[in-house]
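[job 0412] stage=fold_complex status=start
inputs:
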Amino acid sequence: MADRKVVDARGSFCPGPLMELIAAMKMVEVGDEIEVLSSDKGSASEIPQWIKKVGHEYLGSVEEGGVWHVTVRRTK
Amino acid sequence: MKILIVGGGMGGTILANNLARRLKAEMKSGKVRLEMLSASDKHAYLPGLLYVAVGRMTPDEIYRDQRSLLESGIAFSVDPVEQFLLDKNQVKTKSGRVVDYDLLAIATGSRMFPDSIPGLKENAEFFYTEETAVKMFNKLREFKGGKVVIAMGVPHKCPMAPLEITFMLDDYFRERGIRDKVQLHYTYPIGRVHTLENVAKWAAPEMDRRGITYETLFNLKEVDGAKRTLKSEEGSETGYDMLISIPAHRGMEVIESNKLGQNGWIPTDRYTLQMENRPNVFVLGDTTNLPISKAGSTAHFEAEVVGENIAAMVKLGSPVRRYDGKVFCFIQAGSEKATYAMFNYTQPPDPRAPTRALHWFKLAYNKLYWVSARGLL
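[job 0412] stage=fold_complex status=done
writing structure:
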């Protein structure tokens, strides 16, 4: 069964939520999901842009109380 | 009360000196014992390696004797920890010694890990160790012209390093009079030239002005040394004559082998800097898994908070401060100018245009660092 990893990147300006996701992607198995928590609304567009270009799967974003939850799946 | 600090880098050293001053009376009376275990009798100012790689510092300038940096009363041993026996409040060292503690601070740092990218270690130049920085300097001296590519892994130590080395290389080749024979090509993992948006807004036009080409959304996947090409995770490919890499980093092997954290990063509370589920274990510097810059200033500010809190635990029974995520990074913008970025968990950075004055201040800080390490600045 696939695992789900939460990357808490709230308050991360540098390296930032996308960089945290890129690092985390190398630490999970193919098929696993990663949920990125970000306080930067830019993550909701920036993360799907990278996911699309690199060929992983974007599962969606929701905003709750100023925190964006962006979920993706490693596919390769 | 036995306080043990594991690691003699920037975070561990500042913490030890901070505590030695705050707990001077308690140490003198024997109520507190403060001990540091390190892997080396030398203390390195690691940001100096960037300057070594381009011939602006020599290796001897970046080292001091570790003992000379520590306040008297701190028991210091070169005897690296091999086992963390956290359930017993003990560590076991390389020499076989078992050391008990009541409070433990882990500040073992990080290491470059180019092995995660096929072909990278064998074909790229690095500046994260003395050996590789000197090798890179000699390769640069021999370089007559061609395409120089800067590529990086994630996460890496010092998020400003990719821009700093790129602009310093531009100046280096200009000073040698061969800039017209060199194509400098910068790559970066996300969709702009630096993760800090305000820094990227300044850096991209500066690259255009200097004639530096760049490709964003480029995550290094593999290097083919025979064909002198590198491929990205995103599917692009570029050739090179000289490859300079800011490689991915990992925490130290002893953290991984003791299963304290995946890839050597210890799960840490972002405000208290305590290891998750271990209230008597503090983590600072590169060793944490926090989403903030792996940089000396991070370790410095964390060490001040941990120092104040451990001293308060001794004197009052509980910690008194929270770490707010404070980071301050100089940005060397070529060999003549510099600026800085300062931020925390809630305040984004707003770096100003680089100036010569800040460049001179950065050079001064390269010497002032030894005052910082002593916990005085």
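[job 0412] summary: Chain A touches chain B through 25 residues (CB under 8 Å).
[job 0412] exit 0
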